[in-house]
Amino acid sequence: GTAGAAGAAGLVLGAGAGAGVYAAAGSESSSGAGALTSVGSTAVPFHGTHQAGITTPLQARGHLVAFDLAPGAGRKEAAALLRRWSAAARTMTAGKPSGDGDTGVALDAGPSSLTVTFGFGRTFFGRTGLNARRPAALDPLPDFSSDHLDPRRSNGDLWVQIGSDDALVAFHALRAIQREAGEAAGVRWQMNGFNRSPGATVRPMTARNLMGQIDGTGNPKPSEPDFDRRIFVPADGGEGPEWMAGGSYAVVRRIRMLLDDWEKLARGEQEKVIGRRKSDGAPLTGGTETTEPDLDRTGPDGKLVIPSNAHARISAPEQNGGAAMLRRPFSYHDGIGADGTPDAGLLFICWQADPLRGFVPVQRKLDRGDALSPFVRHEASGLFAVPGGARDGEYVGQRLLE
Ligand code: HEM
After folding, report:
1. What is the DSSP letter of 131?
2. Angle between helices 167-181 and 75-93 (to 10 degrees)
3. Is residue 2's pLDDT more than 90?
4. CB within 8 A of 362, min separation 6: which ones?
């Protein structure tokens, strides 16, 4: 059924995971007889303990957009904005028009796994007079030696992640969100991404990135007992503010891939950079994609089979005091530059209950000696507090803004 196919590897939802439960939904916006395909009819519920778009299987299309509040807009305007945005997201994710003046771009299509996820950046709290309720977890990320960050494409007061398995449905949602911002907020930056289309492979598989690697294997699984604790703020708010209960922190990095350099490497060299085989994602010490890597094994030459600077070795939670994050990226490609190099890479998005126990320690270690570093460049960065899901009749962020 739809649920099995949609629960593609890498982000498979365990039974009872509580979010992103799939249900075939009829689409009131589709016209004519006949049923939608499973891609079109798949709906991800807007309401829930957690916002959709975190444990939801990777979608084929994504838009990331950051807004800054308009000069003079404060808490009242922000609350009204989140109310409008939530209403639009609720109807669009059910496959219905966003409201009066709908552009019609998504007509005929079903929900197509649309998710719209909202977050707050550090600067939001000063602008709305809410600094006292700003989570410590939003303190700026440390500088990393390999950073090449463009501040104009980084951070922002508000962040919206849109994902859908249909490009038109995703674009429709992006325009509706922009329109609903009205006079309250303006776009700061916007990025477009993609993943493999559902059904492109004979069976659901972990996605590949633009370097050709199977990417997502080591992700924590919702079926693991410590998954919720690692990814989501506990129901009582934990050590942070209570309004973040059921929420998560998103670290967003635009990571350019230096593909001309990467593609010059022989396959064996590429595999040593990660520590896994390109063909099937298995560790270089053997087995299948899901076999545990043998990090201590040496080869006939006496060297470690998985080199000491291999990306998957350095980033593994066991090497980082258990630091874990859920990586849920989109690839991007924004054309080929005047110098002939593609502006392409990974819109790296990782989710965790606390960035200081997820992204930061791992990136610190990668920064000191990851074999992948010569082939990537971090060009933009954002850190956002993504509150828990809205209950029925509630809007996202209401517990902060009301
Ligand atoms: C693992 C690629 C950036 C954290 C992997 C794997 C690949 C990969 C191919 C092995 C398969 C897997 O477990 O998913 C990339 C590429 C990157 C990138 C191409 C940049 C363009 C990052 C960054 C972080 C990170 C910035 C965090 C700071 C991890 C983690 C694992 C991993 C935690 C899983 C390790 C494990 O549990 O075994 N990455 N990665 N990666 N990566 Fe990255």
Report:
1. G
2. 160
3. no
4. 314, 315, 320, 323, 325
**Residue 215 annotated in active site:** yes
Name the closest-CA residue to atom 2, ligand 1.
215
What would the pLDDT profile of 226-261 be if each residue is shown by its tens digit?
999 999 999 998 888 999 999 999 999 999 999 999
For a mutational test of ligand 1's pocket, the pick from 327, 356, 370, i.e. the residue with the most ligand atoms closer than 8 A to its C-beta, is 327
Q: Phi and psi at residue 163, in whole multiples of 5°?
A: -135, 145
Could you report the predicted ipTM of this complex, rounded to two decimals?
Answer: 0.99
3-state secondary structure of 243: helix
The answer for residues whose C-beta is within 8 angstroms of residue 304's C-beta and 6 or more apart is 295, 296, 297, 298
With a Cβ cut-off of 6 Å, ligand 1 is lined by: 209, 211, 213, 215-218, 253, 255, 257, 274, 276, 311-312, 315-317, 345-346, 348, 359, 362-363, 366, 372, 376
Residues 6 or more apart whose Cβ sits within 8 Å of residue 138 = 120, 121, 122, 125, 249, 383, 384, 385
The CA distance from 282 to 294, in Å, is 11
C-beta of residue 379 within 8 angstroms of C-beta of residue 144: no
